[in-house]
Known about the structure:
Pfam families: Acetyltransf_3. InterPro entries: Acyl_CoA_acyltransferase, GNAT_dom. By secondary structure, this protein is of the alpha+beta class. The chain has 6 helices and 8 strands, in the order ββαααβββαβαββα. It has helices spanning about 25-35, 35-40, 55-65, 120-135, 150-155, 190-200, and strands at about 10, 15-20, 70-80, 85-95, 100-110, 140-145, 160-170, 175-185. It has an 8-stranded mixed beta sheet with strand order 1-2-3-4-5-6-8-7, with helices on both faces. Strand 5 (about 100-110), helix 4 (about 120-135) and strand 6 form a beta-alpha-beta unit.
Amino acid sequence: MTVTRPQPRTLRGTHVSVEPMTVQHLAALWPALAVPEVFAGGYGGGPAGLPADEASFIEWMRGSYLGYPDRFPFAVRLTAGPDAGLLVGASTLGDLDEANANVQLGWTAYDPTVWGTAVNPETKLLLLGFAFDSGYNRVTVQADAINDRSRAAILRLGATFEGIQRKHRIRADGSWRDTAVYSIVDTEWPAVQAGLRARLEAEPLS
């Protein structure tokens, strides 16, 4: 299947919608993401990267997510339950490489109040489906090697562990981050997709 870079669009599930991110989303993501629990796992370069205030967070988000030709950033919005309409997360399809049919699914964070719910599996179901339906044949997912919670969540998706990139990037505090790399390829996608759908039938929204 030939890869043609798709146009980002809103992807709708049962529990969430995944919307192309714009500057209008950023202030609403401040209360969801700018908390110590989110940055503790390595998001934003780790705890030292936590912005001090809303204005700093918006500026950091703008520089981290928007304006890159090889990234499709998305905001995650609840569409069911008592908090329907609330923005609770962010994720990205990035490092878009049509020549090799590769893409990375990352830059992901959620409000801690939705950890362990249907939000992450449905977001991943929607974004992985968008990638594979567009002809990409390999999706990588990465995490700070010390982030056991994120690494366990990636394995629960059905991704395969590929290895550790040592001293891959510098954290906000100046220390070196080792990055754990996982992938899902197109031949694995039907089984991964079925597993995510089964999880959505069993996992609560809240």
